[in-house]
Amino acid sequence: MKKSLFLLFVLIINGQWSMVNAQTNAADDLLKDISDRIELHGYVQGGYDYNTTTNENSFNFKRTVVWAKAKITDQWSFLFMHDFNAKPLEYYTEFRPHKAVGFRMGQFKNSLTLENPLSPTSVELIDCYSQSVLYLAGIGGDPLFGKHTGRDLGFLIYGEPFKGFGYEFGIMNGQGINCRDLNKSKDMLLKLSYKPCAPLCFVVSGQLGHGHAIANSPFNPDVHEGDNYRRHRISAGASYTGPFTLRGEYLKGWDGGVQSQGAYATTTVPIVNKLDAIASFDWFNRNTASHFNQTNYTLGLQYWFFRKCRIQAQWTFCDPNSKWQKNYNMLQIQTQIRFN
User: Fold this and answer.
1) Which of 58, 62, 192, 258 has the fewest CB atoms nearer than 10 Å to its CB?
2) CA 270 to CA 132: how far, in whole Å?
């Protein structure tokens, strides 16, 4: 009897231990599966700015961004991005059953221009994007539209149906990030890209839409806060990535009856190991009838001290080309730390 009870006790303990091991192994497998399917990324950009117009100088943290991408299946994913200096930047789900076609819904960067989709961690200038891209893609600088980091809420179809040829077609609110549409119109955006060879890429893009002004603008006196107005955009550009990099683009916009246009060219040339020279020409006219134009010339250096981490130093001569503002200079220094 005692032997039978002892054997029964041993069997029970062994069974419980096996269950514990099975549960532990299942938990380990689940954690491994989750860790394999979730990617974490982030970066910080901060430095020092000096402007000769106001004689102001300040240390700053311009961007502190973290994002996670979850791979739900081999074809279906979800991304969430947050800037700790601002609001949530991106959150969208994506389904791509084939290389020729994919679908995205949520909040993300719009398809306008060659430069807007680029990450600030890869753009050469400390101020990030050119004047025309900042203004026309809705990143910042346009009082009618506001500062929306080049992002919007909507639906995107994209793909690469043929080798070297890509397309993006988006239906967007046209009001910017974290905002409901304030009019009944939706914006239509189309981008076409062609890579005849690996280093070279040609891009054209356009937008047809109507904005809802959130404020008055000194560059557009005919549109007032609360008005719905025509908001169209076009761009054409090219980039080369080889022994050196070169990117240039022409952009034009229509806001109500006001036209704006601009162009830029930016190059990076390696000097010695991990040290690059940067030069940029950037011209933009916010109102072609009133000549609200400015040209920026930038020279600088950047040193990559670890993979995607760098230190940058840049000098910019700004020429407003107007009687209302004098020429001025900017000195900027920035450190970038990125992990992924």
Assistant:
1) 58
2) 27
